[in-house]
Amino acid sequence: MRKTTAATAAALPLVLAGGLLLLTGCQSEKDALASDKPGLSVSGAYLPQPAMTDMAAAYLTVTNDGAKADRLTKVTSPLSGDITMHTTEGSQMKHATSLDVPAKGELKLTRGGTHLMLGKLDHKPNVGEKIEFTLHFATAGPVKVQVPVESTTFRPKD
After folding, report:
1. What is the pTM of this model?
2. How many Cα atoms are found within 13 Å in the side-chain-facing hemisphere of 47?
3. 146-151 contact pairs (CB < 8 A, 24+)
4. pLDDT tens figures, 5-58
């Protein structure tokens, strides 16, 4: 605390002369605080057109550029009031109450691995349609994403 006060006092004459020095200093402190939080973004989202009218799966990648880990705790969408998260161990699918998003890492939801299951669909989505999903996290605020419906056999290019 003493260093910050001393630095501010030392910069005061320069602020009066230049105006932006203190503002730049405040921005640096703000950036330092922001690095203690998850920095989440979503990419590669898709929902293969379901073969059935009552169930679908969705896949995406959550990237965390922040220095703090987070957890995906819930996913909501107007398409389904019944979205669950699953992991796959061997050939067994298991329900997950949350999924970890590591600091400076990724949470990948992929075919044959961790994924979202949607039950009780509002309608059977068509190829080209975009479905809104809201991802809810333990620490970060909700993240909305438009998920395109792709063909049933779609495989993303990695």
Report:
1. 0.76
2. 30
3. 146/45, 147/45, 147/46, 147/47, 147/58, 147/60, 148/45, 148/46, 148/47, 149/46, 149/47, 149/48, 149/49, 149/125, 150/46, 150/47, 150/48, 150/49, 151/48, 151/49, 151/127
4. 444 444 434 343 343 333 333 334 444 444 567 889 999 999 999 998 899 999
Please tell me the distance from the alpha carbon of residue 73 to that of residue 89, in angstroms, as a whole number. Answer: 20
Expressed in angstroms, the distance from the first to the final Cα of the chain is 47
> For the range 93-101, what are the long-range contacts, defined as Cβ-Cβ under 8 Å and sequence gap of 24 or more?
97/73, 98/71, 98/72, 98/73, 98/138, 99/71, 99/72, 100/69, 100/70, 100/71, 101/38, 101/40, 101/62, 101/64, 101/69, 101/70, 101/71, 101/72, 101/137
Contact 69, 39 (CB under 8 A): no
60-115 pLDDT, tens digit each: 999 999 999 999 999 999 999 999 999 988 889 999 999 999 999 999 999 999 99
Beta bridge partners of 8: none
